[in-house]
Specification:
The complex is a heterodimer of chains A (262) and B (281).
Chain A (H helix, E strand, L loop, with lengths): L1 E3 L11 E5 L6 H12 L3 E6 L7 E4 L12 E2 L2 E6 L4 E6 L8 H15 L3 E9 L13 E5 L1 H14 L7 E2 L11 E2 L8 H10 L4 E8 L5 H15 L32
Parallel strand pairs in A: 2-7, 2-8, 8-12
Antiparallel strand pairs in A: 1-3, 3-6, 4-5, 6-7, 9-12, 10-11
Chain B lengths: L28 H13 L3 E4 L1 H8 L8 E6 L1 H10 L6 E8 L13 H5 E6 L5 E6 L5 H14 L6 E9 L16 E6 L18 E2 H12 L3 E9 L6 H6 L19 H7 L12
Helix pairs in contact in B: 5-6
The chains are: A alpha/beta (262), B alpha/beta (281).
């Protein structure tokens, strides 16, 4: 559940919530790291639950020696009140048997907090794209009916493609085949989306097709698309957005190599 | 995923397991019963001495000002050799934890010796716990909640000693690892003391039981510090054990650390490697 970091619990009324799904390439989580790091957001609380694998580390967004020793947990909430933005960062995998419980926890927290809309950043296996999906921009969106009412125009202007439905049994040529939503490698993304539809929550999903590897460019791509919609960074002119890479993004592929190895 | 030569490999993700669409399917009663029984078997159970159980049942938590938790064989043996041999400690309880890695050892209740709580005879508000068994990911939270539910939280100070392999330590400077074993610390927001070693640098993280304890103590504002010892020796090792000495100096008044234990005691706790694993002596 949500536990405030300070004695006075923060108000999230009418805030936009951005949260990642733990998905292929960890793209959503990397994108959220960029948002927190660039906007210098403050931690206002924790999501303390038995659904996430425990982990702890010192400040991943440290800028100087003084703030480097602040401890961080696997589920934390940050805010930028001037932008009416709240961000949930999830740093650990969801325990396999607790995936549904975690979804329910997040849904009830979203409802209780009064967020005006939620955006889930996610990703899906690139190798499972069908022919249509292999062309064009690898970005897809999903939106619940209640948020579509408000954001239809913005989405039309952005020209994004909605995530395609695929036949339930690919290969069978029955024309009356049932089409369903499939997000391979997306973790709880599909569950969150379908639950939000049935509970009438204003929620959107932004996902990128990608593969495991160096997913930093994917994170930049996803966060830039998000910025096109939410305008988190004010950037007059056509310069590329300046996202700040956090200090925790070092040694992503292991320690330094001893030269004696060669 | 197809490779250059045309064979198809299944790609997997570091982040997610394959989607479990069947999670939402209705289970039949028998499956559900099996699942429930398995869940019950994996529950963490705390067994206290009768007077402690009695006290807890009547709503009084264990009075505790200092709680020292040792996770891992070297951390646990450090406490056995340098602290517990003074015979000023009573066993007050143990935790039983079963998971797929628990091995049944004939003639010994393995569970009992794997997670034991001790209390100082003269100063009963100092509690020590040694954990040498593997606690699975889904049991960590439960273990932590159940144990801390028994301890009173006001002005509680927690110190965790934890073993780790230097192979898990990430650093740009490879030479750093030749100074193993070494300590790194991480503490909660309410910890006001001075750690006895360097802070754990990014991008290193703590996992397992020490992480579960840190998470719990951070959200419940309990002053806690974890000292992680990175060692290049897999088994029990006296040099690694000695590395923990500075961690308990702050508690010097409450816990007497025997600075130079006799070789007999050391020999008793640092047993030689098992015959079947002498490939890498």
């Amino acid at each position: 559940m949500f536990i405030a970091a300070d004695k006075s619990p923060p108000s999230f009324k009418d805030f936009t919530l951005v949260m990642p799904a733990v998905a292929v390439g960890n793209v959503g989580q990397l994108a959220v790291d960029l948002i927190v790091s660039t906007l210098n957001m403050n931690r206002v609380g924790y999501i303390h639950t038995d659904c996430l694998i425990p982990m702890a580390g010192n400040n991943p967004y440290a800028t100087c020696k003084e703030d480097a020793e602040e401890m961080h947990t696997p589920g934390e909430v940050y805010t930028a009140p001037e932008l009416k933005l709240a961000v949930l960062q999830i740093r650990a995998p969801i325990i396999q048997t607790k995936s549904k419980k975690f979804r329910q926890l997040i849904m009830s927290w979203i409802k209780a907090s009064g967020f005006s809309r939620t955006v889930v950043l996610s990703s899906s296996h690139a190798y499972q794209r069908d022919d249509r999906q292999m062309e064009g921009v690898p970005l897809r969106y999903l939106i619940t009916p209640s948020l579509l009412k408000v954001s239809a125009d913005a989405l039309k202007e952005l020209g994004w493609r909605e995530m395609e439905r695929v036949p339930a049994f690919p290969g069978l040529t029955d024309a009356n085949m049932e089409q369903r939503l499939c997000i391979p490698g997306g973790g709880i993304t599909k569950g969150l989306y379908t639950d939000s539809c049935s509970e009438d929550l204003p929620l959107a999903v932004l996902l990128l097709f990608c593969s495991e590897g160096d997913n930093i460019p994917d994170a930049f791509t996803l966060v830039n698309h998000l910025n096109d919609w939410l305008h988190l960074l004010d950037n007059p002119g056509q310069e590329p957005n300046k996202w700040k890479i956090p200090t925790s993004w070092s040694l992503l592929f292991g320690s330094g190599i001893p030269p004696a190895l060669f | 995923m197809a490779t250059f030569f045309g064979e198809v490999l299944s790609a997997y993700s570091r982040a997610v397991e394959e989607e479990e669409d069947d999670e939402d399917l209705e289970e039949n009663e028998e499956d559900e019963q099996i699942r429930r029984e398995l869940e019950e078997k994996r529950e963490v159970h705390l067994h206290w001495r009768p007077e402690v159980s009695e006290s807890l049942r009547s709503g009084n938590k264990l009075q505790c000002s200092d709680f020292v938790l040792a996770v891992g064989h070297n951390a646990a043996r450090f406490l056995s050799v340098y602290v517990l041999t003074s015979a000023n400690w009573d066993t007050v309880g143990h935790a039983s934890v079963w998971n797929e890695r628990s091995r049944a050892v004939t003639g010994q209740t393995n569970e009992e010796s794997a997670c034991i709580f001790y209390r100082h005879k003269d100063n009963p508000s100092v509690v020590i716990c040694q954990v040498t068994c593997y606690i699975a990911e889904d049991q960590l939270f439960q273990w932590t909640e159940k144990v801390f539910d028994c301890l009173q939280h006001r002005e509680l100070n927690v110190t965790v000693l934890s073993d780790s392999s230097v192979a898990d330590y990430k650093t740009a400077d490879y030479l750093c690892t030749s100074s193993a074993p070494f300590l790194r610390s991480i503490h909660t927001g309410t910890f006001s003391g001075q750690p006895v070693c360097q802070a754990l640098e990014q991008p290193n993280i703590i996992t397992g039981l020490p992480a579960a304890v840190l998470n719990h103590c951070q959200v419940h504002r309990i002053a806690t510090v974890v000292y992680q010892c990175y060692s290049d020796v897999i088994g029990p090792d006296s040099v690694t054990m000695e590395t923990y000495k500075p961690a308990l100096t702050k508690l010097g008044k409450s816990i007497q650390v025997d600075c130079s234990p006799s070789t007999d005691i050391l020999r008793k706790f640092v047993k030689t490697t098992d015959i079947q694993s002498n490939l890498y002596i």
